[in-house]
Design brief:
By secondary structure, the chain is an alpha+beta fold. The chain has nine helices and 16 strands. Strands 6-5-16-13-8-9 form a six-stranded antiparallel sheet. Strand 14 and strand 15 form a beta hairpin. Helix 7 packs antiparallel against helix 8.
Length: 328
């Protein structure tokens, strides 16, 4: 009687690829999406990345049963490398970079491009935190690869005479944008720097109000207008549009209170705030409009248009938890 010899190493590898191996140390790719080809773009100069990120990402991806490559982004050929990665049509394009870079690549991919996994590699990391609920890029990468599903990400677009900005989390227009640096300094424990930013914000606050119109309605005035994507809003549904919040502190005391609410509690609870769901908006001011768009500060021209994008791009991310019962 003949005897069939079985290579135990090969058998174990086959079991692991099938997700039935007994070794819990090797990870298994998500069952929700076929991930055969993975490309990861890394900007090592981004604040939350580091010089060792390319080597660390290469080592981490090697644990998974897929064809993977890691591409370092450089200033000289940034566009060429991003275009080449998109043209290669991988099953997922992973981005480890700052908020602005991740948003730019997601915009280029669009709703018909490859899945995007934007990992936390910047300062505020608004979109990565919304998708993966962590500031650790390695943990976010594992969540995407092991638990990811296809998620359509909505967003908004703000355009003025000179530029066009896409956001997937939130945009702050007006004097409230001046408080963003102070808030981040407080979170980082840099209290002296936070005081400098807060004094600067107070000097510029109330110097000029925004005029805005929502969905073509008659115009109103506000100190600041906040536009929030369904990706992070807990007050509107995915298809309802952007959540628009008009903030109207009438003096420095109310502005400080509003900033404290935004940092420590739920800003919707502040009596100077009212919100509604919108599909479009227009804003104008007598001077240039300070803005923070997905964590990136900028200055808009004195007139700008806003529109809702129901399906901006597709992300590889775990299914979000059920919304909380409160809208804090």
């Amino acid at each position: 009687m003949s005897e069939t010899l079985i290579d135990p190493t090969a058998a174990l590898a086959a079991d692991l690829r099938a997700g039935t191996g007994s070794n819990p140390g090797l990870p298994t790719l998500t069952a929700h999406v076929a991930l055969k080809r993975v490309i990861m773009l890394v900007n090592p100069l981004s604040g939350g990345v580091g010089a060792q990120a390319v080597a660390e990402a290469t080592s981490l991806l090697a644990d998974y049963d897929c064809e993977s490559s890691v591409v370092e982004l450089t200033h000289d050929d940034f566009d060429a490398r991003v275009d080449a990665a998109l043209a290669a049509a991988p099953d997922v394009l992973i981005v480890l970079a700052g908020d602005g870079t991740a948003g730019t690549i997601a915009s280029r991919a669009g709703p018909d491009g490859p899945l995007i996994a934007p990992l936390p590699g910047g300062t505020m990391n608004m979109l990565p935190r919304a998708l993966y609920d962590t500031a650790d890029w390695k943990a976010a990468l594992r969540l995407a690869l092991e638990q990811g599903t296809v998620r359509d990400i909505a967003g908004g677009e703000i355009s003025d005479a000179d530029s066009r900005h896409t956001f997937y989390c939130a945009a702050i227009l007006g004097s409230a944008a001046l408080w963003a640096p102070a808030r981040e300094a407080i979170r980082a424990g840099q209290l002296k720097l936070a005081w400098v930013y807060a004094r600067r914000a107070l000097r510029r606050a109330f110097s000029g109000r925004l005029r805005y119109a929502l969905d073509g309605a008659s115009g109103r005035q506000t100190e600041a207008l906040v536009l929030i994507s369904p990706t992070i809003s807990r007050a509107i549904g995915d298809d309802a549009g952007l959540e628009a919040a008009a903030m109207n502190p009438v003096d420095a005391g109310q502005a400080v209170r509003l900033a404290a609410h935004a940092l420590f509690t739920g800003w919707r609870q502040d009596p100077s705030v009212r919100t509604t769901a919108i599909r479009s908006a227009s804003v104008r001011s007598r001077s240039r409009i300070p803005a923070v768009i997905d964590g990136e500060p900028t200055l808009l021209r004195h007139e700008a248009k806003v529109r809702f994008i129901p399906r901006a791009f597709r992300a590889l991310a775990p299914t979000p938890p059920a919304p909380a019962t409160d809208a804090a």
